[in-house]
Design brief:
With about 350 residues, the chain is of the alpha+beta class. The chain folds into two domains: about 240 residues, Aminopeptidase; about 90 residues, Peptidase M42, domain 2 (Elongation Factor Tu (Ef-tu), domain 3). The chain is built from ten helices and 17 strands. The protein starts with a helix and ends in a 13-residue tail after the last helix.
Length: about 350
């Protein structure tokens, strides 16, 4: 991965935007899309849509959601401590003793998630899972009135963690789910810039995926593509505690994961696998026996139906502040998507047929 691409990834990862509060990250997306796309617009939901070759009748949609899991303040007590709940699927264990940034109308506010010292914890309490309503954020306030000069009920918060490079082309940070997918969409658009294409390419950084696949639902309806490919994270099983008997094998650095199952158009899935083989891009295969919890689901079901597929980036520790991915896998994802799109004639029929 070149230096410019790594800096783009860093800027995306280091811009906190919990689901429902994606404005900041979408500003960064628009700035990058502008250099690659013929058209660029943001819809009323907040999805940013960059288009290459907009006059082509055959439309291909790429979707990477830009929101992340976070927290929302629901109560401020008389002493100025803020109680909160989760936005998206997060484990309260992950939140304990973390530094957070509360996103207010006046700007970010530093806070810490408190926990009673172990010295004062009864033996029967130790080791028990915490619940969100039992945790609080301390912003250093004197009392409720003081706290309310800086924060308010309904403010979002994210864990204060940023991208770091590790050995063996690995990177770690919060929000790779799914800033890495949004990054792949942007990189694919960059690779396609100036190429002679037979299709229109609609790169969408979707919003509110973590709370119900909402941005993909509205953007897929408006784009009305023939083909839609979601880019999201896949569970890497190459670390302790992961059971490959349940979810198969997925390894960091061994290439993106393609999928087979009812959420994946089989003709499109085969075409992606064939493209990977032709381009000598390593891929891994995952089984998805039901609808996936990704943007591929609403894209497939949009209007009269869309030929849908999912490309997953192998990831360790998903929905934590220390998600880990391989830069090699990210690069392979955008190369595969660009090669697939360049190879389209613009009249492909992805209707499934008996084999």
């Amino acid at each position: 991965m070149n230096k410019d691409s790594l800096e783009l990834l860093r800027s995306l990862l280091n811009t906190p935007s919990p689901s429902g509060y994606e404005m900041g990250i979408q500003d960064a997306v628009r700035a990058r899309m502008k250099a690659s796309c013929d058209e660029l617009h943001t819809d009323v939901h907040g999805n940013v849509i960059g288009v290459i070759n907009p006059k082509a009748p055959y439309r291909v949609m790429l979707a990477g959601h830009c929101d992340e899991c976070g927290y929302m303040i629901v109560h401020i007590d008389d002493k100025g401590f803020a109680y909160f709940t989760n936005v998206g699927g997060t484990d309260p264990v992950v939140a304990i003793s973390q530094r957070v940034r509360i996103h207010t109308r006046k700007g970010p506010v530093l806070g810490v998630i408190g926990r009673k010292p172990i010295h004062l914890t009864e033996m029967e309490e130790r080791g028990k899972a915490a619940k969100f309503h039992e945790l609080w954020i301390d912003v250093g306030a004197k009392n409720k009135k003081d706290a309310e000069t800086r924060i308010a009920v309904g403010d979002y918060a994210t864990i204060d963690m940023y991208l770091e490079e590790m050995p063996n082309n690995l990177v770690v940070g919060r929000a790779f789910d799914d800033r890495a997918g949004a990054f792949v969409v942007l990189e694919t658009l960059r690779r396609l810039k100036g190429k002679k294409l037979n299709v229109g390419v609609y790169g969408v950084t979707t919003v509110q995926e973590e709370i119900g696949l909402r941005g993909a639902t509205t953007s897929a309806y408006s784009v009305n593509p023939k083909v839609g490919i979601a880019v999201d994270m896949g569970f890497a099983t190459d670390c302790p505690g992961m059971d490959s008997r349940k979810i198969g094998i997925c390894t960091l650095g061994k290439g993106p994961q393609l999928h087979r199952g009812p959420n994946i158009n089989p003709v499109l899935g085969d075409r992606l696998e064939a493209t990977a083989k032709k381009q000598k891009i390593p891929v891994q295969i995952g089984a998805e026996p039901r609808a996936t919890p990704t943007d591929a689901n609403p894209i497939q079901l949009s209007r009269g139906g869309v030929a849908a597929a999912l490309i997953s980036i192998p990831t360790r520790y998903i929905h934590s502040p220390v998600e880990m991915v391989s830069l090699e896998d990210l690069d392979a994802c955008s190369r595969l998507l660009a090669a697939f799109i360049e190879g389209l004639a613009g009249d492909e029929d992805f209707t499934p047929r008996s084999r």
